[in-house]
Structure formats: C-alpha cells, structure tokens
Amino acid sequence: MIGPSLSSNMNAFPPYLFKELDKRKQEELKKGKDVISLAVGDPDLPTPRPIADFAAREVKMSSNHRYPYGCGSARLRKAITAWHYKRHGLKLDYETEVTVLIGSKEGLAHLPFALLDRGDSALIPDPAYPAYKTGVLLSGARVERLPLKEENGFLPDFGAVSRSAMRRAKMLFLNYPNNPTGACADAAFYKEAVAFAKKNNLWLAHDAAYSEIYFKKPSPSILSASGARDVAVEFYSLSKTYCMTGWRLGWLIGNARAVQALAKLKENIDSGQFNAIQETAAFCLENHAGLVKPIRETFKHRTEFFAGELKKAGWNLIEPEAAFFVWARPPAARSSLAAVYEILEKTSVLATPGSGFGDSGKGFVRFSLCAPDARIKEAARRLAGIKW
Ligand SMILES: Cc1ncc(COP(=O)(O)O)c(C=O)c1O
C-alpha cells in the first residue's frame, strides 16, 4: 500500500452486493450469454413523458439555477403537505414537519447521525435495505437485528426482542411495503410499533419508499397511528412511485425535532436538490393519481405473473402485496448465493441472494421485476426448466 491509510470506517462495509453481482453479469455477457437481470430494484419503465416535459421547461428557467433552499422549497413542502392530507388525511406543518432529501437513501443513511450517539444501538429489520445499517455503523452506533420471519408475514415480533438488545437501543427502523419481501403492514401493526417505540423511548424511522406500489389496498402512513408524531418520522421518495430513480428526490415527514435535526445536519453537508427537480416533484404530487396508475398496474401484473410461474415451478413463496419483488425459496435447499449462481449458470437469469439483505434472508432469492414484460416471461420460462 502506498500513501496514508483509509479511515477504519471503511472496514465496516462488505463490498456493495450489487457491484459483485454486476461483475458476474459482465462475465456472463462477455461469454456471449443472453443475460436477463432481475437483480436490481431500478424500474426499467421510463419516467412518464408529462413529468420529463415539465422538467425540461423548469431546467431552462433561470429562477431555478441558484442554490436551493436547505430543507426544500416552500412550494414543494406545501405540495408535500397537501399530498399527504389527500392521501392519508395527515395535517403537517410544512415549515417544521417536512424536509426534502436528495433521494430517500441519503436521508435514511444520514438520520442516525442526527439521532444517535456512539455506543447507542438501532433495531434494524433483517432482511432489510442496506442503507439503514450504513448510517447506524458510520455514526458509531451498533446494529441489533430484528428478524422478519415468514410465519409472521415478515413483520417483526416486538415481544421477542431480548432485554439485552433493548439495553442501548435508541432507534427502530421499519419498512413497509417491504423490500425485499413484498410484505405490507396495516394500521394495527403501526399502532403496535408506535406503542413499542414510545414504551422504550425509541425513535421510529419508517421507510415508505414503496408506499404507492401497492396491489390490494392503499398502504397506510405510520404517522396516522395515535401519538406517532411523538417519536416517528416517515421517508418517501419519487423513485419507485413515478420511475424516477435517477432524479434523486425524497422527503422526510413527522416528528418536528427529528425532521429539523436532519435538516440542520444536511445544511452542513449538502445544498439541497436542484430547484428544477423540486418544481417537478411538486408537479408529480399534484398530478399523482393519473401518473402512478399505469406504473402500479404494470408492477402488479408482472409480480403476480412471476410469483405464479415460480409457484408452478415448485418455489416456496408468499404472494407479494406491493413493490416489485418476488422473495422466494428455490424448490431444492441451497444457500442463497449458491442458488443465485446456479440459476445464472443454468439460465442466464440474474437474481439477488437473500443473504445479501441479512442473515434472515438466508435460503431466499429476490427477483426484481424491473425488466420488460417479454424478458420477465422469458426468465420465468427458463427458470421453470431448471433441473434442481
Ligand atoms: C426500501 C428502500 N428504501 C429506500 C430506497 C432508496 O430510494 P431512493 O434513494 O431512490 O429514494 C430503496 C431503493 O432501492 C429501497 O429499496
């Protein structure tokens, strides 16, 4: 090694899972294989045309070209409060209970810096989206696993959390509709989660990035639970709702102290999202129903089709109720990684090993239905032909 050493923070992280998988995919492509990637949760559908057209006009307006306002433009924060009132019946104060993010991942990873001290711990669902852990570890806090078991519909069992896990706990992450399991939570569960957080004096961060990609009934907000605003905040994102992953816009709502703390932290780190994108976000929210409907229907159709085909092929799974993932165990027992590499070798279909989302994901494989319908059909056909 030449030069100074890197921060020991860097030792806390395994290589980013998708990077490893992408390397394997590139190797297969080099061999001339027709790879179908169902690994990454990044919609293949383009951002709806009216959104892109609106944004193109906003980009040209010089009023959008200067530094954005730290916690987001007043116009967008008002549009966010109006949308939550219409969608969830929530009354939010746009000045204190809303802050705009450069995508929800950024906010999820930064929030622990604002809420935790070195030596505290955070309860994190297992399996889970990796960004929660990133922020917790970098802030010097510890991770306590909160297993999501199939027999509980992939909801955590708060009664099973050990006393030792609770000793230093100061924060709880939840995520419904859930990545990677596709499970949803109802108002009764949120009531229980808020009561658990309040009883144990925990901050509760709920990640609702997939809130609009539901298949049966609209997913509720955790902030509708009585007393939630004493401890809870909720993350939202344009990314999946409108197929806008590259645009980088999300927001946090809820407990004013926590929202303001994150806004203050971010004021010292970044300078907000481009005003043209913030204006476009307001446009999206004001035209929500028409924009999201075809996207939701596409993912519903794909997910139901693919889950059905896997079931016919002998895979074990619970029908997903939201998002665009199928979380399943293969017909023959394999470790997640072995299953993913076997599938890639035999069919050139790339999936994600469940173990990449945590120990409770062992034995599972996640398929992300972010590929054109014809490719999803072809992937299902190839998977059905595997001799396990
Ligand atoms: C559960 C979950 N939360 C948050 C995010 C981050 O979304 P974004 O940063 O694009 O808003 C993702 C992205 O895949 C996710 O799966």
Short description:
This protein is of the alpha/beta class and 388 residues long. The protein has helices at residues 17-30, 49-59, 74-88, 104-115, 131-138, 163-166, 187-199, 256-267, 275-286, 288-312, 336-347, 373-384, and strands spanning 36-37, 98-101, 121-126, 142-147, 169-175, 203-207, 232-237, 250-254, 316-317, 325-329, 349-350, 352-353, 365-368.
Commentary on this structure:
The structure is a single chain. The chain is α/β, with parallel strands linked by helices and 388 residues long. It is built from 12 helices and 13 strands. It has 2 domains: 10-46 and 290-384, Aspartate Aminotransferase, domain 1, CATH 3.90.1150.10; 50-287, Aspartate Aminotransferase, domain 2 (3-Layer(aba) Sandwich), CATH 3.40.640.10. The chain has helices spanning 17-30, 49-59, 74-88, 104-115, 131-138, 163-166, 187-199, 256-267, 275-286, 288-312, 336-347, 373-384; strands at 36-37, 98-101, 121-126, 142-147, 169-175, 203-207, 232-237, 250-254, 316-317, 325-329, 349-350, 352-353, 365-368. A 7-stranded mixed β-sheet has the order 2-8-7-6-5-3-4, sandwiched between helices. The protein has a 4-stranded antiparallel β-sheet with strand order 9-10-13-12, covered by helices on one side. The protein has a two-stranded parallel sheet with strand order 1-11. α3 runs parallel beside α9 (275-286). It is globular. Pyridoxal-5'-phosphate is lined by residues 41, 103-105, 129, 175, 179, 207, 209, 237, 239, 245, 250.
